[in-house]
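== Fold encoding ==
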Amino acid sequence: MTSPRTTLSLVDTDPAELAVDAIVIGVHSQTTEAGHGAPADALLLASGAESIAAAFDGKLTETLALLGATGGPGEVIKLATLGTVTAPVVVAVGLGAEPSGAAPAPESLRRAAGAAVRALAGAPRVALALPLPDDADAPAALRAVAEGALLGGYRFAGYKTKPQPARREPVAEVLVAVPDAADATALAEVARAQAVAGAVRTSRDWVNTAPNELRPPAFADAVATAAREAGLEVEVLDEAALAAGGYGGIMAVGQGSEAPPRLVKLTYTPAGGGSGKRVALVGKGITFDTGGISIKPAQGMWEMKSDMAGAAAVGATMLAVAALKPSVAVTGYLPMAENMPSGTSYRPGDVISMYNGKKVEVLNTDAEGRMVLADAMARACEDGADYLFETSTLTGGQVIALGKRIAGVMGTPELCERVRVAGDSTGEPAWPMPLPDDVRKGMESDVADISQVNAGMDRAGHMLQGGVFLREFVTDEVSWAHIDIAGPGYHSGEATGYWTKGGTGVPVRTLLALVDDVATNG
């Protein structure tokens, strides 16, 4: 199921004269000194709004303040122009306090553009006159505005059968006001933003699809079809191939479901061989997670359709890689299974022989993600990789430790730092976490090489246990990073910034930034 798509282009016409349904400007909050030394809040127009302000004879900020505008981040205030400018509506979006001596941070622009475009659903054509610097920071700012606008316009198509009178269509066309609409660098940023946002939207669509419609075979087919159309090399292992190949972890998790497991491999080979480096991306694809025999509570279980957000992100990232054509080889591995309780489910106490030959004692069938990932990571290392990035909605411990916006990162310290930097640059924050020896000691098994969780079922350091387990399946010569997105992979609250309710597409943009980093810096 594909969501409606917003298109985006550049324009260098005076914003006050654009024939659009709404024009978006930025406003900053500003504290001034009012009478008797008491502080009073005032508004400050961001750059880009000069011609709009002139058309209002200097009364624009006063009027917006009367309507309740404060300039707070993400705040959206609409004002009828009554013919003052060509557009019938001016929309002021809050950018927060004015940064001293600099343009707003890219993430502030990304969230502002997303909030404005989302609030303007129902308006066919919208222009953004947001602050864009004219220095070296200009490309990053434009990229942020473009990504925010395209992602803020996302809405899942859904399954409603009756017309919804109050449901307005997403903005169809967005124009971004720039100094020169023909500038090659600006056009390149827009092209990249369209490819990246398209991938994020595809990831969101897969995550938001009802789990009865996206069981492992159907998910594998959807990814394979999109990948072939993008020009990627595709390999799909079905249950017979997985069993014959020794993928014990994937088979164990998938054996409780009537919908059998899959492993999808997507390969991008750059022209001329590229930089010579090889990047492997691995994503957890549990299309629904009941917990298996160790069944989850009913409350909130419906959100477990998002337990394949890691695989959705990796698959979508590979589609963007095919479009952007970086000079580095990239291969994606998507292990897919449905974790169901049945007479054929794997059990606590089972010992599973994994793809790399290690024996794992199962203590909790709800710790299934690490089982399918371990096989895929071992296969990635066997195929050959210099860097391995794996992402998954792996542990509730990530949410407890870092909240719902910040991913946890574990693995090779230098690579974890690169993930953190990439996350900061894309607005998908991640924080490096340790892999302590005492956590590994707690996972010693009496009968196998390692227990799947702490042998005493102690949940202390639960997020770290996942990372420690996965480390066992990465060969020494491969630098690796495990990105736990249990919180940021799915947004169950109200829409905010460029996030809508449901799948977020995290960490597609981080993975693409990392691929670029490896292509450029090795």
Summary: The chain has 15 helices and 21 strands. The radius of gyration is 24 Å.
